[in-house]
Amino acid sequence: MKILDFIKHTKLDTLSESERAKLLCYYHYKTNNEKQFNMSLVSDLMIKFGFNTPNTSRLKNNLIKGKNKAFIPIKGSKNEYEFIPAHLQTLEKEYKGIWNDSETIESSSELIDETKFCGKRQYLDKLIKQINHTYAHNCYDACAVLMRRLFEVMLILSYQKLGIDNEIKDSSGNEYVMLEKIVTNAKNNATLNLSRIKSEFDTFRKVGNFSAHGITYTAGQKDIGDIKLDYRRMLEELYNKAGLI
């Protein structure tokens, strides 16, 4: 978990100095699996998180002697401390869930502007955040496949909004045809009436196809970078066609 996320989840900046120190030690324990602390480490944690350097003598008294004490000295050591077991259990019960979060996707508009394109539909938000997350973490094949999927979804939503999605369904009328056929129809569809960005549609599709099906192919940052500006233009146009902007 990133520091800023932890501060947000725990409302760290609203707490007293001693409560803040306890939670910072808990964060250190969860991220480094270190159960021993000293006041030098506690002071360093306070500074690392952007808070003022504490009065370590006063803080030490609050942490090991105050009515809400959280630490006990380690036997055989004068300057090393550990959580009181019951207090650590209380912290685990209250905050452990933020480390087991299976829903939150850490992203920050690394490739697609979340301020502009998120907040319309939840499933689109998740796709966009996954695209940004994979791009930020150098997972370019995953990013390319997700970009292809979002492109396909936006085309279908545009057809649905215009009431012409029957044009991209199979002979049974129940399933949508493959993306290649959707793209072929879209480029020549007078009702959809796309701008010149449609000339890039096959590129968006192929970049995703290479990453999904190429046995020896692996995408790199440049493969995504080469299409990101046109991809953004496409998203804005299809968001408009789908009635989302």
What are the key terms here?
245 residues; mainly alpha; Arc Repressor Mutant, subunit A; Four Helix Bundle (Hemerythrin (Met), subunit A); 2 domains; 3-stranded antiparallel sheet; 12 helices; 3 strands; elongated
Description:
The protein has 245 residues and is mainly alpha-helical. The chain has two domains: 3-99, Orthogonal Bundle (Arc Repressor Mutant, subunit A), CATH 1.10.10; 114-241, Four Helix Bundle (Hemerythrin (Met), subunit A) (Up-down Bundle), CATH 1.20.120. Helix content is 56%, strand content 3%. It has twelve helices and three strands, in the order ααβααββαααααααα. β2 (71-73) and β3 (81-83) form a beta hairpin.
Element layout with pairings:
Elements: H1 3-10, H2 17-32, E1 36-37, H3 39-48, H4 56-64, E2 71-73, E3 81-83, H5 85-95, H6 114-117, H7 122-136, H8 140-162, H9 179-188, H10 201-213, H11 221-225, H12 228-241
Antiparallel strand pairs: 1-3, 2-3
Helix pairs in contact: 2-3, 3-4, 7-8, 8-10, 8-12
